[in-house]
Amino acid sequence: MRINLSARISGLYAITPDEPDTVELLRKVRLALLGGARVLQYRNKAADKALRQEQASALLELTREFDVPLIINDDVMLARQVAADGVHLGNSDVTLGSARAELGSGKLIGMSCYNRLASAHEAVSQGADYVAFGSFFVSTVKPNTVAATTDLLRQARREIAVPLVAIGGITQHNGAQLLKAGADALAVISAVFNAQDIRGAARQFANL
Q1: Which of 29, 58, 160, 200 shows the greatest Cβ crowding within 10 Å of its Cβ?
Q2: pLDDT(140) > 90
Q3: What is the pLDDT of residue 1?
Q4: Is 52 a catalytic residue?
């Protein structure tokens, strides 16, 4: 029987910015964790393989200090190499079944389902530990993504038992409505890591 790892997906789900300086990345992430981030996803689309491994390994040590799960974006092999807590997959990545075969039953696997409830049901049937919907608002990181609605989130909450993650343009001002609609976690990049006070911004989200 699998341990209920999905119970750890809640609150502020911080996603790292594309920061080439590992020391600076660790500084920023530490502030977010001090502010109350409950999950960390490592995402750096601009880094090469060596830098990604360096940063992921360093972030794993940091998240262990705070007892926060580290999820790797897209890269199953990197997640395995650094012994991260799991991986987050999009629709163009490896299949959920392949990821599970590589990582084993003791790791978290999340799936981006965008604005498609059917995709979420399929992901859950294949063993996803959580599913993510979005973009709910205009995102500076992914400005051309599909739009998701709070009605979708409400329906997903009625039909899906695993944690629901909301993503896309989320701020301290609009996040509460997503939690009210059924989101368990708010995935945030810019509103935390672009803030002058990263710790304070993270705390505002945690307080929601």
Answers
A1: 29
A2: no
A3: 33
A4: no
Residue with tokens 């991986």: 87
What digits encode the pLDDT tens for the residues 41-76? 999 989 999 999 999 999 999 999 999 999 999 999
142 is annotated as an active-site residue: yes
98 is catalytic: no
Distance CA 204, CA 109 (A): 27
Is the pLDDT at 32 greater than 50, yes or no?
yes
Could you list the residue range(s) of the whole structural domain that residue 80 is in? 5-207
Q: Which of 8, 38, 43, 52 is catalytic?
A: 43
Q: What is the CATH number of the domain that holds 136?
A: 3.20.20.70
Q: Are 163 and 190 in contact (CB under 8 A)?
A: no
The single-letter DSSP state of residue 145 is: P
pTM of the model: 0.94
Contact 202, 35 (CB under 8 A): yes
Residue 196 token pair: 């002058």
Q: Which residue among 6, 28, 112, 203 is the active-site one? A: 112
Burial class (CB in 10 A: 0-12, 13-18, 19+), 135: buried
Q: Per DSSP, what are the bridge partners of residue 187?
A: 13, 167
| Candidates 30, 80, 142, 157; catalytic one | 142
Axis crossing angle, helix 150-159 with helix 117-125, rounded to the nearest 10: 30
The residue type found at 1 is: M
pLDDT at residue 162 greater than cutoff 70? yes
Say how many domains are in the chain. Answer: 1
